[in-house]
Amino acid sequence: MEHVVAEHGVSERFACRVLCQHRSTQRKKPTKPDDEAALTANITALAIQYGRYGYRRITAMLRERGWRVNAKRVARIWRREGLKVPQKQPKRGRLWLNDGSCVRLRPQHPNHVWSYDFVEDRTHDGRKYRMLNVIDEFTRECITIRVNRRLKATDVIDVLSDLFILRGVPTHIRSDNGPEFIARALREWIAAVGAKTAYIMPGSPWENGYCESFNSKLRDELLNGEIFYTLKEAKIVIEGWRHHYNTVRPHSSLGYKPPAPEVLQWPAAQSGPASPATPAIAPRPTMN
User: Fold this and answer.
1) Which residues contact 95 (CB under 8 A, 6 or more apart)?
2) DSSP per residue over 139-204, as a string?
3) β-strands 128-136, 142-148 pairing
4) Which of 26, 85, 107, 214 sits 20 to 30 Å CA-CA off 54?
5) What whole-number distance in Å separates Cα of residue 76 and Cα of residue 58?
């Protein structure tokens, strides 16, 4: 605008009227925030590191790093930088019974419904290995991932027994109808410890939607982008991803918060000795 006014000798008012612009556009020049470059660099770095995360999940991670930014600004930078997460999701119907009712056991509290399922992959030499994933459907936390070349019903009992000792016995355990999950020894053992099995209908994986969703994230965000040369390497990397999933990765259904964020422990005061958490246990008397 300034060079038009200077070159042709017309007034600014006339030039704005001809170009259909308001005169205020010549008073205030557009400026960018001082932190625009740094924010763009952070968004790009997170998008490269977590290639399957969208701008909403990236916004949550930026806030965890101390940025005071809303999703609209992140979305604007996201579009400007040409960032995109391709996603194809087939439509799935619900499982309906003959009387028109829909089968669904919904979790009400932690340890109410656990679900578990197998995922298979191969190491670089072509050998197959399996993963047994166990999640808490209410908190969305991945409780454990057991990785081994072979996993049978006895291995499922071994994994669940350790979890029952550490976390208690859940009310229901949901799984599909695979031979490892419907084995007689496993069903009798689950009933003996006081839990109830909740098998999905055959050919209806969406009835185990929480675990299926987790399995797809595990494959999409880790397995599809990694080459494991040994089983030991796979165990270490997968366990590291599980820890990241529980403590860092924002979960959309939890308000973009991680399922089990780590709690910072403040150091104890130095003014005096700390009192013991539990009273001392008196020594057992000896028999004379």
Assistant:
1) 102, 103, 200, 201, 204, 206, 207
2) T--EEEEEEES---HHHHHHHHHHHHHHH---SEEEE---TTTS-HHHHHHHHHHT-EEEEPPTT-
3) antiparallel
4) 107
5) 13
Closest by alpha carbon to 178, among 161, 159, 158, 197?
A: 197
3-class DSSP assignment, residue 57: helix
Place of tokens 């979960």: 251
- Running DSSP on this structure, what letter comes out for residue 31? -
Q: 173 burial class (0-12, 13-18, 19+ CB within 10 angstroms)?
A: buried
pLDDT digits (tens, 9 = 90+) for 95-120: 444 443 334 578 889 989 898 888 99
Of 180 and 5, more confident: 180
Biggest CA–CA distance in the chain, Å, is 117
| Residue 158, number of CB atoms within 10 A of its CB | 13
d(CA 262, CA 252): 18
How far are the Cα atoms of 63, 67, 238 from residue 246, in angstroms, in the given order? 17, 22, 12
pLDDT at 13 over 70: yes
The more confidently predicted of residues 77 and 197 is 77
Asked if pLDDT for residue 285 goes beyond 60, the answer is no
Q: Please state the length of the chain.
A: 288
Question: What are the tens digits of pLDDT across the range 185-223?
Answer: 888 888 888 888 877 766 666 667 788 889 899 999 999
